[in-house]
Amino acid sequence: MDSRPIGVFDSGYGGLTVLREIRKRLPGERFIYVGDTARIPYGPKSPEVIRRFALEIGIYLEQSGVKAIVVACNTASSFGLAELSRRLAPPVVGVVNPGARVAVRCSKRKRIGVIGTRGTISSSAYQNAILAVDPAAKVAAVSTPLLVPLVEEGFTSGKILECVLDLSLPRLIEEEIDVLVLGCTHYPLLRESIAEYLAAKGRPDIVIVDSAEAAAEELARIVKDRGGSERAEEGLREREEVGEERRGEEGRGNGIFYATDDPARFALLGEKFLGERIPAVQHLPLEILAEGAARRFL
After folding, report:
1. Distance of CA 277 to CAs 25, 154, 253, 266, Å?
2. C-alpha triplet 198, 97, 105: angle, nearest 5°
3. 261: exposed, middle or buried (Cβ count in 10 Å: 0-12, 13-18, 19+)
4. Where are the domains of the chain?
5. Is 50 exposed, middle or buried (0-12, 13-18, 19+ CB in 10 A)?
6. Can you tell me the distance from the alpha carbon of 136 to that of 186, in angstroms, rounded to the nearest whole number?
7. What percentage of residues in the chain have a pLDDT greater than 90?
8. Which of 32, 184, 216, 259 is catalytic?
9. Is 184 in the active site?
10. Which helix (H) or strand (E) is 30 found in, with range?
């Protein structure tokens, strides 16, 4: 049984929605989470810079002894996944390819919509991943950069959110999509509001695909195939035997959280993404990430 932790990283907070889904499926596993809050957001940055950031964190997690790495950021997955998979020893799971596969499975009419950050959409990562699974699919992708700051400021419902959704979702509805992919790990917090919006526009039938859930499912398969299933099953039994308060304590006790800037703010904002209190976040200086990458390539 492989008891090494799982590494998870994102440009900031959104990846905690992926971690939340991972812990539902692998509750007995330990993890290391890195939120690159000093360099958030990744979306507007160049592909070269995003790849460098992702590789620095990936190397840090590899050197920390993880058995798998989850790129819990759609932008970093779009631009950096191939590089990470090529250079790092642990298996690397992104959020784009798993989300694309689920979208194709769920689409009956082969008309799929995607919303995400400017970087993710401009990379055509989802478009390419969906077409690789089903070349006959029609993909409509729209960047929705205003949704990330709305989520972080707590506007996950209400008139302001509705006005922002008016800028993007009607275009996808016009394309007669039957599946909508949430192509940003912030967006699961908007899932209910987006479903209500679509229903109000006469399209309650549109299936919403959460790439965070899809990535967690893929990771669970990899971990169990490589000998982690016993630990996961033990953890699940333990969590079923304890009360709600103890369950929360159990979940927080099996991981380490790092933020590259303002750990206190990360702990505060991170609660809404993880779905529970984050009691301790350690500071991870950017210098350590840069030095680790430099040593790796000397």
Report:
1. 19, 16, 12, 11
2. 55
3. middle
4. 6-94+213-296, 97-212
5. buried
6. 29
7. 84
8. 184
9. yes
10. none
pLDDT at 13 over 80: yes
* Neighbour order of strands in the sheet with 179-183: 138-143, 111-116, 179-183, 207-210
Query: 284: helix, coil or strand?
Result: coil
Region 97-212: CATH code: 3.40.50.1860
AA letter at 162: E
Query: 97-212: same fold as 6-94+213-296?
Result: yes
Q: Helices in the chain by DSSP H: which ranges?
A: 15-25, 47-63, 74-87, 96-106, 118-122, 125-133, 147-152, 159-165, 169-174, 191-200, 211-223, 229-241, 244-252, 263-274, 286-296
Considering the candidates 73, 103, 147, 215, report the single residue annotated as catalytic: 73
Residue 43, number of CB atoms within 10 A of its CB: 22
The DSSP result for 152-197, as a single string, is: HTT-SSSHHHHHHHTTTHHHHHHTT-SEEEEESTTGGGGHHHHHHH
Non-local (6+) Cβ contacts of 195 within 8 A are 204, 208
Does the predicted model carry a pTM greater than 0.70? yes
Q: Region 175-200: what's the mean pLDDT?
A: 97
Architecture per CATH, domain 6-94+213-296, reads as: 3-Layer(aba) Sandwich (3.40)
